[in-house]
Amino acid sequence: MNQIIKESLAKSITYQEYRALVKQLAEENSNTGLEKTEALANYTKLNDRRMKRWDKTVKVTEEAKEKIEAFNRKTTWLIITESWCGDAAHVMPALNKIAELNPNIEVKIVLRDENLELIDMFLTNGGRAIAKVIMLDEQTGEVLNTYGPRPSEATSYVNRFKAKHGVLTPEFKEDLQHWYNKDKGQNIISDVVEILTAVTPIYQ
């Protein structure tokens, strides 16, 4: 296994530990990461509420559940994130819901700013975008696939806007939040199911 991945795994935390950390930081008016600002602390508070809501409300369809449960390769999902990241707050509860359905999937979480060498191995269009999921074979340490920072439909939506306007405006970011709220984690679930079925063929 790559030494950087190995070192990051050694200091990773569980999803439950991460949720407790974000909750605590929200109460303390703080945030993860190298930069501590009022804006990032406010995003952390907002994300704590978002994750709390999604932890309760994300639903996995029966069809998706069957495919997730059929996945039979022991894997670790190493998720790189920060408490202030809006996309991560929508994506992570859905990922956790999927992992809960299959004992072969273990979720481990690390913070981006404490693991810059790791995120630099998995850049998105040259940027340190999060949340980023590294799917690892538990036995060999091989990187089977990566996922993130956004679900496929949100990525297309962002790319189209960027191509037209150059930068993401505050109004667009608000629209993107509405998209997440409307989608209810379903695009994330279908994306990940597609990845899982590609890793291990599912025989009907």
Automatic annotation (TrEMBL):
Q: Which GO terms describe its molecular function?
A: isomerase activity
Q: Name one Pfam family in it.
A: Thioredoxin_9
Q: Which keywords label this protein?
A: Isomerase
Source taxon at top rank = Bacteria
What InterPro entries has UniProt attached to this entry? Thioredoxin-like_sf
Name of protein: Thiol-disulfide isomerase or thioredoxin
Record organism: Algibacter pectinivorans
Lineage of the source organism? Bacteria, Pseudomonadati, Bacteroidota, Flavobacteriia, Flavobacteriales
